[in-house]
Amino acid sequence: MVKHQPLQVYERQLCLSCLTGIYGCRWKRYQRSHDDTTKWEFLWSLILFGTFSLLLVWFYFWWEAHNDYSEFNWFLYNRSGEWSDGTVPILATTAAGFTYIAFLMILALCHVAVGQQLNLHWLHKIGVTAALLTTIIGVISVTQMWGEEWDIVMISLQATGPFLHIGALAAVTALSWLVAGQVARAEKTRFQVLLMVLYLGVLLALYLAPLSITSPCIMDQRSLKPPPSIIGHQGAPMLAPENTALSFQRALRLNASGLEGYVSISLDGVPFLMRDRTLRRTTDVEQVFPNRQFDDASLFNWTDLQSLNAGQWFIKDDPFWTVGSMSQRELRQAESQRVCSLQHMLRLAASHNRTALLRLHRPPPQHPRYWGWLNDTLETIHLSGIPQHMVMWTEEWRRGFVEAVAPGFQQTSLEKRPVEELHQRGISRLLLRYNQANERDIREFGSHNISLTLYTVNEPWLYSLLWCSGVPSISSEAPHILLKLHAPIWLMSPDEYCLIWIATDLISFAIVLGVFVFQKWRMSGMSSYNPEQIMLSAAVRRSSRDVNIMKEKLIFSEVSNGVGGADELYMENGFDCYTNQGIAH
To answer: What is the pTM of this model?
Structure first.
């Protein structure tokens, strides 16, 4: 008769089962291993870490690029001819991919913490590969189509750098628990030295990182200049359809310092406001003039333009996700807007004593006013009654003629040139994208009496950064948000930042030192092992074949024909269960 004798009573390890099961589909106790991770799995761990790092940068890029989402969508529209919010699928896939990869990274670190062998399941390997390739394709595509936007990363680090440094230092300090445990358990001195050098090198680099962190907001508060004046870029396009009378009225009601508009010329010589070359995106031209929807906007006469609705698209497309917060009265006002003339905009600006920033589109060669459009525009400005000194003129074509006809205009250049050349050409103002002027340029232009306006600034952090840099004015699609700021988001003196830096480094060093000492003491008390630790828990370095044989004998052994019990199984495999020591052969 065969007698079955239970050799061991095991406690359920639900957390460990979930950990190894989710990461490597190793749900059973006998599937786990404390052996060293194979080279192949170590390579996959490096790929996982690289994917996580790349996705972290990609996620940070799109987080900070929120300032330019409308620019990105407009860029896509010009390439495809159809309007859609291209940021939604990008943000959704980026958030999902980053969450998934970050979860796998946490599981991998937990494996290291409990001494389990890393063995990423093949389905996860497919997922990691897909995330990596998708992100690489995204990075390449953005670089080719929208390369200048990568500047937002370095610019934003001036605002977030001090805080990201503290966060990174906290994360690396927390990793000291894992590193100290690995060093204490490692048997090879070379591995211990390599791991310690690598970890301490990263830690030292973070300790000294503030030496390379620069930010205009680290300054004496007494040196802070007045806030930049805010020009409404196409009015207040987050609150009303762009380049419409309602949009300009909203910007003036918010106390914007000026209005910016894109000027085109109609077939019969009436200057009107339209950013796009066609009318498809911002009017109902597809319904009213379906056969002319792809024609240049300047090839319509003023009567035809007035018959178009310029507000319904705003309610339908909701380009800034603001329609849901508008009242019924505001929705009706927005929906009833028409194409706005330049004269109407200038009269609004003049009645509120505000600056008018004009960006002009020259009509195509077949246009009947191709040679006379400049005179038409100047005549409209004169008839509107706005003082010349309140007009910022950006058109380069025949600038000398314009200076002679309207000497009071603020001659504004869209190109960054040396100060001497700007003075020779009579340029008194510059209108540049926010990434085209650094802090040194801002000081240089200011010292030579050249006023600088940067566009398009929509986020409070960017506005605060430019405020600290001393920028005199900015152009924004979000004046209703920026005008609520009465001080930069953060501002600290160099002494305060130095104190925070030193205190953070000292706290981190004390924690790391304490963790290493504790882990050394903790591991020194685990020099002896019991059979269960050898079989199931402890990171004992035996060959996989021996360990598997011992597990099978413990779990499935049948005691019969002179086999007395578990003690003989231990002795057979070279282990003394009473002394907890291996038997020397």
So the answer is: 0.85
